[in-house]
Amino acid sequence: MNKVISIKPVPLGGELQARVTAPVERDGALPVVVFSHGYGSSMEAYGPLTDYWAAHGLAVVQPNHTHDTDPQGWRMRVDDVRRVLDQLALVEAGFTVDRDRIAVAGHSFGGQTAGNLLGLQVRDPETGTETALSDTRVKAGVLLATAGRGTELTPYAAEHYPFMNPRFDRMRTPALVVAGDNDNSPLSTRGPEWMTDPYHLSPGPKSLLMVPGGEHSLGGIPGYDARETTDASPERLDLVRRVTLAYLQHALGIDDTAWKSADVESK
Fold first, then answer.
1. pLDDT at residue 116, as a whole number
2. What are the E-state strand segments in the chain?
3. DSSP letters of 226-242?
4. What is the CA angle 130-114-128, rounded to 5?
5. Is 199 in contact with 166 (CB distance < 8 Å)?
6. Pairwise CA distance, residues 120 & 114, whole Å
7. Separation of alpha carbons 258 and 263, rounded Å
8. How many domains does the chain divide into?
9. Domain of 211?
10. Spatial separation of the C-alpha atoms in residues 180 and 210, rounded to whole Å
11. Strand 17-23 to strand 4-11: parallel, antiparallel, or no bridges (unpaired)?
12. CATH code at 233?
């Protein structure tokens, strides 16, 4: 694998900053993945995944969402990603990015954020309205351990996280959904299958990777030695890294070789 370099903080105006990770050796403009972290996490996290993608030729931009506790935090996160896309010139440090090859990805709450750019809609709990937030600059997405329908939230989750009410029927941009078959979220009454809603309830083309034995950490993607990892497994982590990379290379028109042999469900 190629060596990688991370640059931080990259100021993007106001409180918004980003961490940019890219391969040291590169040839031409780099495809871009904007990665949205989980609730309460930061741009410092997810190195096991973002470093791997960068080592294989992608530029990964991780905005530091700072407003998760704001009632409008779900919407402000989407605005953060849009501002990254608006200001890609600011993340270029010794390399150029390919503006025709842009993907978004996210874990947990970050998956909902990324999904909004793909066409997922949220009913604003304050106004009751739904707003289309998709972005045509985004060609594909990877949604990792992303929440399902809001009708199956626990009473606690429905009270404290009313923005978790996604609608998937307009999420038309291609995406890979990654879920652990042992991810029993305390936020849902349904069990691990809840995390597959972004695949089953959205229009194609979509693909689904079920991670055997995977919990919410999917083998260890939140960070190196991260405390929140409950299912640490080199094998699970390797599976998630390999398949997500293969998908991104496929969806962005880089290389189809690895994706053709990936064991996933597709529609």
1. 98
2. 4-11, 17-23, 30-36, 59-63, 97-107, 121-122, 140-144, 166-167, 175-180, 206-211, 265-266
3. -TT-SS--HHHHHHHHH
4. 15
5. no
6. 9
7. 10
8. 1
9. 4-266
10. 6
11. antiparallel
12. 3.40.50.1820
CA 246 – CA 260 distance, rounded (Å): 9
Q: Report d(CA 137, CA 260) in Å as an integer.
A: 25
Q: What is the pLDDT of residue 138?
A: 98
Predicted TM-score (pTM) of the model is 0.97
| Cα distances (angstroms) measured from residue 92 to each of 45, 59, 252 | 21, 9, 19
Structure tokens given for 127? 């106004």
Mean pLDDT, consecutive 10-residue stretches, the chain (267 aa), reads 92 94 92 97 96 97 95 95 96 92 98 98 90 95 97 94 94 98 95 97 96 97 90 96 98 97 95
Under 8 Å between Cβ of 103 and 31: yes
pLDDT for residue 56: 97
210 three-class SS? strand
